[in-house]
Amino acid sequence: MNTRMPTIGRAWLLAGLCLLAAPAWSHKASDAYLHWQVLPGAAGEVDERLDIALRDLDRELDLDADGNGSLTWGEVRRRWPDIQALAGTAVQLSADGQPCRVQDHGQPQLDEHSDGRHAVLRRRWTCAAPPQQLQGRYTLFAQTDPQHRGIVRVDWAEAAGRDGPGPRTAVFVPGPDLQRFDVPAAARSSGADGPGWTGFVAQGVHHILIGADHVLFLLALLLPAVLVWRPAGLVLHTGRPAAGWTASQDRRGMALDLLKVVSAFTVAHSITLSLAAFDVVSPPSRWTESLIAASVVLVALNNLRPLVAAHRWPLTFVFGLVHGFGFAAVLKDLGLQREGLIAPLLGFNLGVELGQLAIVALLLPLAWRWRASALYRRGALQAGSLLIAALAGVWLVERAFDVALLAV
Fold first, then answer.
1. What is the tally of structural domains in the chain?
2. What are the alphabetically sorted keywords of the record (predicted)?
């Protein structure tokens, strides 16, 4: 057993370092929203709208001239040529293998998304002929932010008529690769199995893996799954008191209980993700993000002095409803109409499930193997839960009161 301790210690030290790094990625991931509208007629024109988060532009271009931590319209407006230059080189459009050229630019504009204010950049592209296929290359923040993604919508509706297939959606990973979008006739045959759907599967995996609040919520649920809580006053057959967490000996029961917990979270966030994406229920983002942080705090504290030790799935279901509203922000910010949401919704939700299953598959065997050690109960469960609760408590204050306590 002693020969295993250094390995165990290094593993949990690595996990602790990951938790300490969590404030840097505790908020919504870096996303930009790109919309190409193919205009009807023989001119071969495409309208473009690109929404980039001001926080990302400030990191890249240092827009905050007075350094007070708050961007004004004047500060953004003065640097608009630099913003246009950055975006202009980052997004390139071709039609049928021939580069399109920029005809004109729109006026400076800001818009509000679920994760804050975005700069809105508009351009009109002119292609040599009405496009049969669009090819896009996206390199925004490719060198500075590996987590960044561009969420693109290509709208052929006006060009295709009322019976056309509607918008196509995809996710751009910044880099040199081209992404292709066919004319409506070809798109109609490809349906939801095209690159847009698989792109949203990847986006769902991406968001669950880099979303610290969702990951820590799952981790806080997972840590006690391999243990059994024995309340104060219980005495073992040896005559010794047995209060506290002890190692589970029922692998089948542990697996069944964890399956209920994960399934409850899945069903709950799928319900609210769908309701929010279709605007049936749309709570304010600030409330949602605050409640998500609060759910992490409560689950982590429950590991230290359980109020709910057995049958945790109903509590998980309630908290999962809140997390679903957080997942919906990406799809809502894309601005899809209801008829264009089904494939992205299914793909994104599948990606979220794959991401959380990957977390469970990675950590559960390690937790089961080390569950009987004092290092697991005191280091992983107690110290880990305290650290999770502390981090989530900071996020709760930041989100509820709109303040920045942790500089990143």
1. 2
2. Membrane, Signal, Transmembrane, Transmembrane helix
